[in-house]
Every structure is written in structure tokens, then in C-alpha cells.
Amino acid sequence: MTSLQKINTSEHSTGEIKHYYTRVFAKGLNQEGSIWYNSCNTCKSKVTIIDGIVQCTKCTNENVQCSLRYLIKLSVEDNSSTAIFTLFDNEAEQLIGMPVIELEKIKASKIEDYNNIIKNILEKEMTFLVKAQDKIYGSRTFRSLTVQSIKMDSNEVGELQHKKIKIEEV
Hints:
The protein has helices at 4-9, 89-96, 100-109, 111-119, 157-160, and strands at residues 17-29, 36-40, 47-50, 53-56, 61-62, 66-77, 82-88, 125-137, 140-151. It starts with a helix and ends in a 10-residue tail after the last helix. Strands 1, 2, 6, 7, 8 and 9 form a 6-stranded antiparallel beta sheet that branches. By secondary structure, it is α+β, with helices and mostly antiparallel strands.
């Protein structure tokens, strides 16, 4: 297991991808909006819907087929540091425990139930396989930490070792 402090401060070249196992506590959602978005079924990019017309800027197509997709920014911490992990559809669904379309229906019909579902993912210790990559956005460089796999129980980590990914030991 690698500490968050070591993940946050390890040397990376821009664009270089490294993978780490880390055991952390989920502390909160770091969302400015929703935890899902409308995505293009072809490329998974965010789509815009204007006057009923669905447009994908990446595919540059109009009237594309789209569906909801999770995008969760999860604040985590261990005894060394804090970080924000990004979880996309499969890993977010595993964390939440249901498909995004079901959670959207719950939020629309009973906000208290939705809030309880979100609260239930917090303050739990979990092991994550995280992809770390330094990216340039404008004039600043930032470290992107994207969850590749989640294990709620430390005994499950052995199962992750069989993936063909080079795991960094820092």
C-alpha cells in the first residue's frame, strides 16, 4: 500500500501514468454540481442538450444517443494526507451500490433517501487501485487520480494483483 502523501509527491513526467494501491477513508463528495452527466454513447464525452437536440462536441455529431454516466469527485484521506479521487461509471456504481439511472430516480422522488445513500459511502475505509497522471491544463500542471478498482475488504486486494498493471511501490 502506498500513502497518499507519497502518491501526491512522487516524481512523474507529464503524461506518465503510474498505478498505486492505497487504503483510505472516504470523507465526502467534492462536487460543484451533480454526480452524473449526460454522455455520448459513442465516446463517453459530455453532451449538451439545447432545444431537445443532443450534441457531442468530441464526436461533432448532432442527435447522438446519450445516457447518464457517473462522475464522482471523492475526497479521501489516510494518516499522511488528503486527496480527491475521480470515479467514473463502473467504479462509482460499485461505490454507490446501484446504477446511475436508479439513483437519479431516487433523488427526483425522495431527496432524503438520496442523501442517506450518499452518507452511507462516507467514513468507510477502502482500498483503491488509482491511476496517477500529471496533466497540463492551461498554464498549470495538476495530478489526476482516477480510481481503476475498489476493494471494500483488504482480503480482496490479492485479487487485484493479477491485473496486468505495473504497480508502483513508493
